[in-house]
Amino acid sequence: MLSHLLKENVNVIVSTGNVLNVSDLRKKAGQKPTDELTDCLRSTFAEAEVIASGAQNPVQLVTRKNDDLLEKVKEHQRPDIKIGAKIFLNNYSETGLTEAIERLFETLNVSYLDNLILAFHPRAGESSAGGDQNGEVKEGIIEWAVGSDNAVANLKKLWSTLEKYATDKKIGQLGIADLDVDTLKNLLEASTVHPTIAQINLAACCVVPPALQEYCSQNYIQLLTHSDPQELLPQSVLSDLELDSYQSTWTTRYQVHIKCRGVLAAKGFIVGLARRQ
Questions:
Q1: Helix (H), strand (E), coil (C) string for 198-234
Q2: Nearest Cα to 183, choosing from 218, 221, 155, 147?
Q3: How many of the other CB atoms lie within 10 Å of CB of 4?
Q4: Pick from 162, 130, 166: which is nearest to 148 by CA?
Q5: Closest C-alpha to 37, from 21, 50, 22, 19
Q6: Please, are residues 144 and 120 in contact by the beta-carbon 8 Å criterion?
Q7: How many helices and strands in the chain, by DSSP H and E?
Q8: Which of 244, 252, 250 is nearest to 276 (CA)?
Q9: Cα–Cα distance between 41 and 24 in angstroms, integer?
Q10: Which end of the chain has fewer CB atoms at under 10 Å, N or C?
Q11: pTM
């Protein structure tokens, strides 16, 4: 579908643009997050425009033709819109996190985000306990990064990257996904810019852990629920898209809302892909 257009040994950035502008995608409301992303990528690849990389930046950019994303963002003054994003990482990479943020600024042509949530789940292969337990809610208890020795230390390093953007007023609110209460405490105590949003996945259980709820309340952290999987873009999906020679390094999902009306003006994904070794 797309692989024949891509150069060998060159990483790829895929930007879906505003998926609200694609009629076939609008008809599929209520999809699971991975299914939604898969369909958005298929739609992008069906009318792909590949921008060749240069010597200074050996990355190919894949976009969708006839995209109205920038038009939708610029229809209103920046103070009148709210831009929120969630970055999914399954491998520890400060460089990857920075790339994801900078690509988002560039794609939307803005200088700051209202909020950004980080979902960091080391891949199942990096955890002796396996990916099925990582971040799952069991009887009111959240287990995050079970069996991954360096997960907490790596999370703190990633958070330091986010703090720099917040300190520079480029991100308003910082959020974190799927942490158990002890890890959230650990992160809060080690950070200078505290998370003000915490997301938990209640897909497997409808119980909000009482200890987490109490801690968030005491520390002015907004507790929200979500239904995202730990790995938003698994290798099996890339294989189905005829991109099995690549692996996902990071994925960003963003939304642009009109503040006064609460209307969703634009939504899309940006995906970083690297050649598998």
A1: EEEECCCCCCCCHHHHHHHHHCCCEEEEECCCCCCCC
A2: 155
A3: 6
A4: 130
A5: 19
A6: no
A7: 8, 12
A8: 244
A9: 12
A10: C
A11: 0.91
Beta strand 171-177 with 113-120 is: parallel
Is residue 30 left, alpha or beta, with left meaning phi > 0 and alpha meaning psi from -120 to 50?
left
Instruction: Say if residues 45 and 62 touch (Cβ distance below 8 Å).
Output: yes
Where helices occur in the chain by DSSP H, the ranges are 23-26, 33-46, 69-74, 94-108, 151-167, 181-190, 210-218, 235-240
